[in-house]
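Run log // design_07
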């Protein structure tokens, strides 16, 4: 019988006696005087602990996945389990993750602290307000929004065109009623009436900037470079023109520091930032990754959604901006996801034929990762209803491609269920067989970069553009931003831009509906289809099943 069959994630988390954060810091040789504690069990780490020379000597491991399904594939769980597994075999490791957003926590997806016996703790605090980083991002974003509307109210000396203001407010909650709103009603004293709207906080460009800045000075420069809108002559107006960057940076001066917590097995975990993986880079901050690499031999980190989204952006954008060198990639695969991509409607139903068909999706992700100079290792994230036959099909399929596929049992066994994977990762890194290289040169034209991703990563035949997208593309070139990298915004449900095309689609074109630019974060966003930046709550939100007693004990959080 599964030893935690009747235990929820929060019950498992609460069953473990948590260590004080000073003890965790000691494992990383951090003096307690260098910690900035937030209570007993979490702390901020000062940026002076980052050591570029140590970073060069230590090893970065990226965890990604096949094209995701509604059930989730468990990248965070595998990442935490792998870090614990590395400790089990005598290696020093730190897992570095993104922070959860409150929207999914109270919505349908749940939190992002792992699951089963592979979690980071204190689970409730990490999934809720944590150290206030998301609040700081929200406040910095909304300060800029307030400055824009104040400027419009008082003379509008920059001649901002109210029809061409791109900056939106944000809130870290799923609230569909705020997607499109009208502000400034109630007469002259209440501002200028105009259309506006809210995005969820992880979709803010401020979040993307926080996670791509290498230090506080670069953070301020990037904030100043935010394109807020156009003036009446069609010329760009930046946050620096509104003198907003210093005040925004002040609000983020603590949020830029990574957060130290622990796994259930009392190993160090760094959690920081949380940008979306389709309209932004979808991974934790450069600073957090560098902090981990400064303090431990191995860093395990993850990137959002499938390898075509988070991993592609991690390798083409974050690794280049941060001068990082990923040496291994773990490709998380689940049997139920293979069933899904193989056409089985009930992915909890065993179906060996569907698993075999669904592996075509994995084959494409393997090919894609190899294009970056890295041969991946497959982690088969085990679930109770997986059959031996289905697992064997996956292992044999991988072996036929020269890829190692290893059972990952972190959910049930913690680090002890990940020692085989840990040993294989160490062996691969020690062999020096991987030599990371980005997929494209940033100095290629915008269309060349888009085509490279669409054809080589997605498998598209061609790229089509709307008139609006082509017009914006020419504006971006005229403004001098054609050299920026590409953040493709598309559905996570398919390798194509059509969410209904599962497995490995062929003979398709992708359609660029529009193009945006984040001049502060430093990337161009071709949008394939509609992107949801302010989700709504489901008919039965996760909040319905949560409770708290008179002692403050929480139930139902996942």
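design_07 sequence
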């Amino acid at each position: 019988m599964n030893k935690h069959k009747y235990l929820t994630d929060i019950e498992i988390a609460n069953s473990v006696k948590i260590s004080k954060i000073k003890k965790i810091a000691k494992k990383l040789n951090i003096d307690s005087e260098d910690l900035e504690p937030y209570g007993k069990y979490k702390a901020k780490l000062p940026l002076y602990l980052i050591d570029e020379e140590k970073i060069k000597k230590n090893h970065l491991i990226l965890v990604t996945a096949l094209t995701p399904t509604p059930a989730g594939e468990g990248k965070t769980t595998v990442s935490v389990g792998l870090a614990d597994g590395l400790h089990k075999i005598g290696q020093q490791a730190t897992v570095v993750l993104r922070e959860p957003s409150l929207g999914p926590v109270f919505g349908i997806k749940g939190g992002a602290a792992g699951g089963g016996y592979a979690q980071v703790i204190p689970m409730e605090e990490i999934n809720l307000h944590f150290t206030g980083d998301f609040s700081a991002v929200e406040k910095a974003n909304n300060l800029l929004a307030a400055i824009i509307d104040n400027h419009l109210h008082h003379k509008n000396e920059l001649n901002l065109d109210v029809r061409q203001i791109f900056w939106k407010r944000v809130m870290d909650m799923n609230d569909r009623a705020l997607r499109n709103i009208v502000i400034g009603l109630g007469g002259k004293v209440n501002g200028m009436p105009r259309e506006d709207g809210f995005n969820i906080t992880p979709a803010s460009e401020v979040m993307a900037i926080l996670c791509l800045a290498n230090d506080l000075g670069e953070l301020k420069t990037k904030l100043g470079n935010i394109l807020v809108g156009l003036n009446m002559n069609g010329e760009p107006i930046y946050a620096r023109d509104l003198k907003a960057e210093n005040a925004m940076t002040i609000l983020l001066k603590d949020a830029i520091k990574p957060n130290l917590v622990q796994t259930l097995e009392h190993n160090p975990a760094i959690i920081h930032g949380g940008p979306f993986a389709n309209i932004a880079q979808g991974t934790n901050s450069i600073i957090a990754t560098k902090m981990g690499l400064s303090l431990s031999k191995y860093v395990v980190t993850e990137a959002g959604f499938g390898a075509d989204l988070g991993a592609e952006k991690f390798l083409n954008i974050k690794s280049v901006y941060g001068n990082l060198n990923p040496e291994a990639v773990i490709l998380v695969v689940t049997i139920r996801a293979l069933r899904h991509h193989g056409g089985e409607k009930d992915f909890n139903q065993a179906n060996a034929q569907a698993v075999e068909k669904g592996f075509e999706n994995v084959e494409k992700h393997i090919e894609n990762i190899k294009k970056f100079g890295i041969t991946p290792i497959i982690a088969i994230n085990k679930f109770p209803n997986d059959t031996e036959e289905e697992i064997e099909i996956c292992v044999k399929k991988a072996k036929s491609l020269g890829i190692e596929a290893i059972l990952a049992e972190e959910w049930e066994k913690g680090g002890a269920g990940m020692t085989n994977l840990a040993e294989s990762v160490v062996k691969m890194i020690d062999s020096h067989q991987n030599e990371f290289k980005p997929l494209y040169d940033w100095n290629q034209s915008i269309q060349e970069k888009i085509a490279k991703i669409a054809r080589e990563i997605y498998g598209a035949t061609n790229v089509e553009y709307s008139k609006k997208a082509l017009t914006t593309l020419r504006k971006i070139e005229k403004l001098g931003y054609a050299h920026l990298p590409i953040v493709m915004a598309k559905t996570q449900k398919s390798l194509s831009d059509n969410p209904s095309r599962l497995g490995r689609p062929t003979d398709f074109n992708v359609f660029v509906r529009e193009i945006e630019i984040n001049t502060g974060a430093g990337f161009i966003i071709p949008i394939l289809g509609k992107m949801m930046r302010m989700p709504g709550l489901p008919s039965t939100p996760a909040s319905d099943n949560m409770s708290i007693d008179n002692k403050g004990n929480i139930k139902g959080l996942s």
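The chain has three domains: 9-131+255-431, 133-251, 446-527.
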